[in-house]
Amino acid sequence: MYILPERIKSLRNVKGQSQKEVAEALGKSREAISKYELGEREPDPDVIVQFSQHFNVSSDYMLGITDHIENIAPGKRMPYSPELYAFEKYLNDQNFIPYLQLAVRMKDSNIEINQFEKFINKVIRQEKKQKHT
């Protein structure tokens, strides 16, 4: 099983592009992209580099040498998984860190959500009272 066709199709889908859009970006025909994805045609090294640049991943990832996506331009990569990208954005947001720490503490202490909501609502009411006095 050759991994390059799977990676091309998967990355294209993650990026939300049609075969035609990828073809136009790479200066290829839609049919050529289709054949690459089906494994009916193997791209030459220059085309593999074009795919890597277009999807912002390493050529090693495209070829299956590694399963780790390595971005070409730090901070500007197209993620393999939109969910992981969204989570990564939260992790890089300094304002989110206290919430993440709180979630970890809640999980470690087995606090039920109902108890937590009651506690938070109580704290919010107290804060509102203090602001109004």
Mean pLDDT: 80
What's the name of the CATH homologous superfamily of the largest domain? lambda repressor-like DNA-binding domains
What proportion of the residues form beta strands (DSSP E)?
Answer: under 5%
Secondary-structure element pattern, one letter each:
HHHHHHHH
Query: Regions with pLDDT < 50 over 5+ consecutive residues?
Result: none
Task: Identify the CATH architecture of the largest domain.
Answer: Orthogonal Bundle
In DSSP terms (H or I, runs of 4 or more residues), the helix count works out at 8
Estimate the global geometry from the Cα principal axes: elongated
Describe this entry's structure for a reader.
This protein is an all-alpha fold. The chain folds into 2 domains: 3-78, Orthogonal Bundle (434 Repressor (Amino-terminal Domain)), CATH 1.10.260; 93-132. It is built from 8 helices and no strands. It has helices at 3-15, 19-26, 30-38, 45-55, 59-63, 82-92, 97-109, 113-132. Helix 2 packs across helix 3. Pfam families: HTH_3 (PF01381). Keywords: DNA-binding. Residues 8-62 form the HTH cro/C1-type domain.
Features of the shown structure:
133 residues, mainly alpha, 434 Repressor (Amino-terminal Domain), 0% strand, elongated, Lambda_DNA-bd_dom_sf, DNA-binding, Transcriptional regulator, XRE family, Cro/C1-type_HTH
Layout of strands and helices, then pairs:
Elements: H1 3-15, H2 19-26, H3 30-38, H4 45-55, H5 59-63, H6 82-92, H7 97-109, H8 113-132
Briefly summarize what is shown:
With 133 residues, the protein is an all-alpha fold. The chain is 68% helix and 0% strand.
